[in-house]
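Feature request disguised as a bug report, sorry. It would help if multi-protein outputs had a clear separator. Right now it looks like this:
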Amino acid sequence: MKLLLIAIAFFSFSIESFSQIGTVVVDQDSDIDKLLEFKKDVKTVNLFKIQVYSGTRSGAESSKQNFLNSFNEWPVSMEFDSPNTKIWIGNFRSRLEADKALLKIKRKYTNAFIFEPKKDKK
């Protein structure tokens, strides 16, 4: 019995002494992160946008330029939706993020609102 306890103690200490701690380092091209961000933006998640203008093309161009002069933290796009041209702001990943932006934008664009663009079915 004594010999069995000595053997168990010996094996338990030897197992601990041979255990290893390792670290894994992933070395990948930085373009992979860019591609993953692009994939997230392209029809894979529900995005929210803010519309600040809908009307004529010349009015949309003017509104876009005015917006860019006032705000530069969000992407701005001009979309044609017959018969109007619209100015859309951002690619917000959550409604909360869009709401925070809307609070700032509404100070200058009182008719601005949040929406989810329709996804193209392909």
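(second protein starts here, but nothing in the output says so)
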Amino acid sequence: MISVDSSPVNPVEDSLGEFELRVLEFERRNPQTGGTKADAVRTQLGISAARYYQVLNLVIDSPAALAYDPMLIRRLLRIRESRMKARFAIRTKVSAN
């Protein structure tokens, strides 16, 4: 006889690790920037702010993260893109001088 597991399975959550889900949930709840966010990262996730942003940038490139929370991921991608454009503009302005 075949046993059927009746527990719901979410393939998106299964493809993201527990820590990646915690990072996304943290970002969803704490979108503010500044020193207090760095303190919150260390307290709630137990990592440095630099490591947090490294993990976050890897996670938001994941199709599983986009499937998990499309609005959050698109917002974070827009923010990252605008910051990259601003950095590029500064670099090209400095290089032109």
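Even a blank line would do. Unrelated, but nice: The longest helix spans residues 70-96.
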